[in-house]
Amino acid sequence: MKGSIKVMVSTKKLRYELNLRRNITIIQGDSASGKTTLIQIISDYLSGRSGPGIEVVCDKKCAVLTGDMESVEARMKLLKDTVVFVDEQERFLYTKGFAAAVSASDCYFVFVTRDALNMLPYSVNEIYYLKNSGYYQHTRQVYNSMHQVYPEADRSEAIKPSIVVTEDSNAGYEMYEAICQNKNVACDSAGGKSNIARYILANKDRAVLAIVDGAAFGADMQSTMHALKASGKSRVWSPESFEYLILRSGIVQTEGLGKIMEEPGNFIESREYVSWERFFTSLLEDITRNTIYVYSKRKLNSNYLTDGNRKRIEKLMQDAGLFPDDAAE
């Protein structure tokens, strides 16, 4: 599956509207916000237990997964081109086996859970908060709307960092280190995305700019935001990935690239790429194969580090409100 998929679920009193843009969508919400009710309505509708006035509208088939891991694995093998809903009460949701099944599936998944799913790479942009927008008379609808938990503005406010930290020390780190050297700013690696929050807390007296791959950082975003709140000085920037920035920068070009970058979801098949980060890496590797810009995630090709190319990446950072001209502290 690929592209945006709309799901509308309604009763005489409730209406939910979801716009699924990637293979994994997370729905959070407080008690009584309607999270479990959403799953129950869909389950009853699909099983024929719902009464009049209940409607589930979607261009794709829908399914609700329940039960033990063995039965879920068996059913997952049969599900194709389907929007799959899972409630946080299902224990299999937090297992390695289920994460592996999701990664191999061509379905879209909607997980209703307040807990991080650390074994799955999902986007910070696809974590939503279910909010009841108002309660009226019993004969009127209650519209349950979806709001992004981590809107872009909250993650890229202007900052003059004293240190930049990346998830690890691969190709992206080499580029950010070069940019930092040019601006007399320290650059460091957290040694893994799960260490970003801990790094910010350990340096809470400094203005830390954490740069993460937003396309796969969703599970670590909550702890990172708590760390940012405790620090008060730091920020996190979450572009889709470093490869995404290269493709956006104009360093490499190929026919049709602009269209892909404008609407990537229309080109990313969920069975092939469990996260957009993997798609952008694969796309960059394909475009640069047998060229002077041949790309390796492990070690950055020196041709990307010329002054001109470095400034292209730096320009994208400045456009996001990062590294103003007097960035160094």
Key descriptive features of the protein:
9-stranded mixed beta sheet, 31% helix
What does this structure look like?
The strands form two sheets. Strands 4-1-2-9-8-3-7-6-5 form a nine-stranded mixed β-sheet, covered by helices on one side. A four-stranded parallel β-sheet has the order 11-10-12-13, sandwiched between helices. The protein starts with a strand and ends in a 10-residue tail after the last helix. The protein has helices at residues 35-47, 69-76, 96-103, 171-182, 196-202, 218-231, 242-249, 257-262, 276-288, 307-319, and strands spanning 5-10, 14-20, 24-28, 55-58, 61-64, 82-87, 108-112, 127-132, 142-148, 163-166, 186-189, 208-211, 235-237. It has 329 residues and is an alpha/beta fold. Helices cover 31% and strands 20% of the residues.
Mean pLDDT metric: 89
Order of helices and strands: EEEHEEHEHEEEEHEHEHEHHHH
Strand content: 15-25%
Major β-sheet strand ordering? 4-1-2-9-8-3-7-6-5
- What Rg, in angstroms, do the CA atoms define? 21 Å
Global structural class: alpha/beta
Overall shape = globular
Number of strands: 13
Taking pLDDT < 50 over at least 5 consecutive residues as the criterion, the unreliable ranges are 135-140
N→C terminal distance: 47 Å
Largest sheet: 9 strands, mixed
Percent in helix: 25-40%
Number of discrete helical segments? 10
Map the helices and strands:
Blueprint: E1 5-10, E2 14-20, E3 24-28, H1 35-47, E4 55-58, E5 61-64, H2 69-76, E6 82-87, H3 96-103, E7 108-112, E8 127-132, E9 142-148, E10 163-166, H4 171-182, E11 186-189, H5 196-202, E12 208-211, H6 218-231, E13 235-237, H7 242-249, H8 257-262, H9 276-288, H10 307-319
Parallel strand pairs: 2-9, 3-7, 3-8, 5-6, 6-7, 10-11, 10-12, 12-13
Antiparallel strand pairs: 1-2, 1-4, 8-9
Helix pairs in contact: 2-3, 5-6, 7-9, 7-10
